[in-house]
């Protein structure tokens, strides 16, 4: 752990919190949430507690630590707070507290990390308690003013009523008095069946600002006297700067400074960003290409292929004796699937604005983890964490990439060389593509045995590929094993467990780590695991001569929630009836990020061109806070998942990535997007995530439908590399 990160841990004084080193923070939050704690009053507006600021005019500001990157987390969490607070929803707005404020208040806002579809599912309890606590304090203040028992008072729509006398007072009138009270130790939360604000498809709170252009993103930040910067790091993995000629560009228009900020990264500061970018393009640079110039996509593929027969695999799931059952089986089926490297490709490139003085460092940044950004800023500034702070802004796309903090570190290192001057760093699109933290490439070999009745008697699933945790969170490894590799494949667990019962089952991982920096990419390992399992299940069904839905039903008798979402999409797509002429249908299901999801696809191929006509999706996330947001997230996840399936591929040649912009890394266009029919089927009793799970079922549903339409079995993505004629 870095010195700065240790200082943060000491400042927090919580025995379980671990921030890790600033350079090792990823998009997967393994932190914990502290119980609700009250904060002191005395701010410009009456503060009932740290979560809720009640203005004299009854306007309510709800402070939320999680990041907003288009998924609607701020609105959903605000709904939960407002539900328990019993406030007027039309008067609600949100704001971010800073991680510095969080540390100063003993982490009252809990975890600032937003990733792994955890925004609501890991915050719901303590944000609801925050709202309920504020409500009870407001009621107590009104009751004290009336000199009546608080039990005789109720709150609704930002008004407190004394029921026996029908006296009423608004929240704003008693907020100052309420803020001075001692918070109750225990509060009772509502049963979801009684929700009036939560659980409803309310419009998002940030929509109007987006429509009118008022919403501020990182690249919009403007500060007095601000200069602009861009960077260029060595594009070769493991390489560094050998030499550069600063004199060649120092007299170019607007250029203020040319500097090297670490052994592999150069920066140029100028009056405008375009001047900085133009000068960087003209800067003569010689790279030390490092030790990996012989590494290519082909050599990595061979490395992974060798993992299929290796003896050093980490075993995660074992039922019965799969090797023995496979060895004695009369009929076995085997297949190898593969997924390439993929880039996050956020629409807003990495950026951060930093202001450094010897006394204080401040950063304005779109980040998925404000506390990790604070750690990175303090470490780069060389200042105590108490002398630093981070101001979060909305993210122009995150997808896991903005859980990493390299761009924050760079902005502070540049600003440190120009004390007192705000520096806005914006990466070029090319830098964003070539300096990614890529979704790792993996291959998977699956072998199964079918008995005489077409039942699966045994299966071995060997994953060969990179570990994300080994690179970004080594402290989270378990005896050398990366547990995140097995997302959706565990026998039990609330996060994601296997949806089939197979009497002899072995799932293991041959870890192979090429010199490409991996990162958490929206959906993480659930994506490939669903692809591997669900496409192979389709193969087994056809080998057994059984309808793919009927085949799955037999294996899913002990997994009713998995089966329920699968049956929902099968019904929605019209599975029991033949597909229209020339079309094929495919199914897929998985559990991940605490939710059960499924998809059914309907596709056709004409003159070698794939057309995805429609997708039917089902999500069971237990409790649903905003069904309209769930529908939008599901639809958006198919954009992301299908982009990866059809086009997404980062290829390595000569020790560096080839794809450097959207002309070589294609994403779906509107004309290519199918209609998505979303079924939200909450069964209650648990809290699942929404932003990521359905990404995983996009590709396998389409690939299985493609086979049904054409008889072609595609096992290696992306589809752009295959002829469908």
Give an overview in words:
This protein has 725 residues and is an alpha+beta fold. Helix content is 28%, strand content 22%. The strands form seven sheets. A seven-stranded mixed beta sheet has the order 9-10-7-17-14-15-16. It has a five-stranded mixed beta sheet with strand order 12-20-19-18-13. A four-stranded mixed beta sheet has the order 21-22-23-26, sandwiched between helices. A hairpin with a 4-residue loop joins strand 14 and strand 15. Helix 4 crosses helix 5, helix 14 packs parallel to helix 18 and helix 17 packs across helix 18. The chain is globular and about 80 Å long.
Q: Topology, pairings included?
A:
Layout: H1 3-12, E1 52-54, E2 60-63, H2 73-85, E3 92-95, H3 99-104, H4 124-146, E4 153-156, E5 159-162, E6 167-170, H5 171-179, H6 207-212, E7 227-233, E8 240-244, E9 255-262, E10 265-270, H7 273-282, E11 285-288, H8 297-306, E12 314-319, H9 322-327, E13 331-339, E14 351-356, E15 361-365, H10 370-381, E16 388-392, H11 406-416, E17 423-426, H12 429-434, E18 442-450, E19 456-465, H13 469-472, E20 505-511, H14 526-544, H15 548-555, H16 560-573, E21 583-592, E22 595-606, E23 609-620, H17 627-646, E24 652-653, E25 656-657, E26 675-680, H18 695-710
Parallel strand pairs: 2-3, 7-17, 15-16, 19-20, 23-26
Antiparallel strand pairs: 1-2, 4-5, 5-6, 7-10, 8-11, 9-10, 12-20, 13-18, 14-15, 14-17, 18-19, 21-22, 22-23, 24-25
Helix pairs in contact: 1-10, 2-4, 4-5, 10-11, 14-18, 17-18
């Amino acid at each position: 752990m870095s010195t700065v990160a240790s200082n943060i841990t000491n400042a927090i004084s919580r025995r379980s919190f671990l921030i890790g080193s600033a350079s090792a923070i990823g998009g997967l939050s393994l932190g914990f949430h502290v119980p609700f704690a009250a904060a002191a009053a005395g701010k410009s507006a009456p503060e009932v507690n740290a979560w809720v600021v009640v203005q004299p005019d009854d306007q309510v500001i709800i402070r939320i630590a999680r990041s907003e990157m288009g998924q609607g987390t701020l609105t959903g969490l605000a709904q939960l707070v407002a539900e328990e607070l019993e406030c007027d929803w039309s008067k609600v707005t949100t704001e971010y507290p800073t991680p510095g404020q969080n540390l100063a208040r003993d982490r009252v806002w809990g975890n600032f990390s937003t990733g792994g579809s955890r925004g609501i599912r890991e915050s719901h309890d303590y944000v609801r308690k925050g709202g309920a606590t504020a409500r009870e304090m407001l009621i107590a203040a009104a009751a004290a003013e009336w000199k009546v028992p608080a039990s005789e008072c109720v709150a609704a729509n930002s008004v407190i009523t004394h029921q026996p006398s029908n006296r009423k007072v608004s929240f704003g009138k008693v907020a100052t008095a309420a803020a001075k009270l001692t918070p109750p130790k225990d509060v009772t939360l509502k049963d979801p069946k009684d929700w009036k604000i939560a659980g409803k498809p309310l419009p998002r709170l940030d929509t109007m600002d987006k429509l009118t252009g008022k919403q501020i993103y990182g690249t919009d930040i403007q500060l007095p006297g601000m200069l602009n910067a861009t960077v260029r790091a060595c594009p070769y993995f493991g390489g560094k700067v050998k030499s550069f000629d600063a004199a060649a560009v120092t007299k170019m228009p607007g250029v203020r400074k040319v500097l090297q900020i670490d052994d592999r990264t150069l920066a140029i500061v100028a009056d405008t960003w375009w001047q900085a970018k133009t000068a960087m393009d003209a800067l003569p640079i010689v790279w030390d290409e490092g030790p990996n110039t012989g590494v290519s996509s082909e050599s990595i593929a061979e490395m992974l292929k060798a993992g299929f027969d290796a003896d050093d695999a980490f075993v995660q799931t074992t039922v019965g004796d799969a090797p023995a059952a496979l060895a004695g089986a009369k009929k076995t089926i085997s297949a190898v699937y593969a997924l390439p490297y993929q880039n996050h490709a956020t629409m807003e490139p990495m950026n951060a604005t930093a202001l450094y003085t010897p006394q204080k460092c401040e950063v304005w940044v779109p980040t998925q983890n404000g506390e990790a950004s604070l750690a990175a800023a303090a470490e780069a500034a060389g200042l105590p964490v108490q002398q630093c702070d981070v101001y979060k802004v909305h993210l122009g796309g995150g997808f896991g990439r903005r859980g990493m903090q390299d761009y924050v570190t760079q902005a502070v290192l540049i600003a440190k060389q120009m004390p007192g001057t705000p520096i806005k760093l914006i990466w070029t699109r090319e830098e964003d593509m070539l300096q990614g933290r890529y979704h790792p490439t993996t291959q998977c070999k699956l072998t199964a045995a079918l008995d005489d009745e077409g039942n699966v008697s045994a299966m071995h699933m060997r994953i060969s590929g990179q570990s994300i945790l080994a690179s970004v969170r080594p402290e989270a490894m378990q005896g050398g094993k990366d547990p995140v590799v097995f997302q959706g494949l565990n026998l039990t667990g609330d996060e994601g467990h296997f949806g089939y019962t197979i009497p002899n089952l072995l799932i293991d991982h041959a870890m192979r780590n090429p010199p490409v920096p991996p990162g958490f990419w929206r959906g993480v390992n659930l994506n490939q695991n669903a692809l591997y399992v669900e496409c192979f299940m389709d193969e087994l069904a056809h080998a057994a001569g059984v309808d793919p839905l009927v085949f799955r039903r037999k294996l899913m008798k002990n997994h009713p929630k998995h089966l329920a979402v699968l049956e929902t999409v099968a019904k929605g797509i019209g599975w029991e009836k033949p597909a229209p002429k020339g079309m094929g249908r495919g199914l897929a299901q998985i559990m991940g990020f605490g939710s059960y999801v499924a998809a059914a696809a309907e596709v056709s191929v004409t003159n070698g061109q794939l057309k995805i006509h429609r997708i039917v999706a089902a999500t069971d996330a237990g409790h649903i806070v905003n069904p309209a947001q769930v529908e939008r997230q599901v639809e958006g996840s198919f954009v992301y998942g299908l982009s990866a399936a059809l086009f997404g591929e980062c290829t390595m040649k000569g020790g560096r990535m080839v794809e450097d912009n959207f002309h070589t890394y294609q994403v779906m266009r509107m004309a290519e997007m199918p209609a998505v029919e979303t079924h939200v089927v909450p069964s209650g009793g648990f809290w699942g995530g929404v932003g990521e799970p359905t990404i995983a079922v996009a590709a396998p549903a389409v690939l299985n439908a493609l086979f049904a339409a054409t008889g072609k079995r595609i096992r290696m993505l992306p589809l752009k590399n295959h002829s469908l004629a």
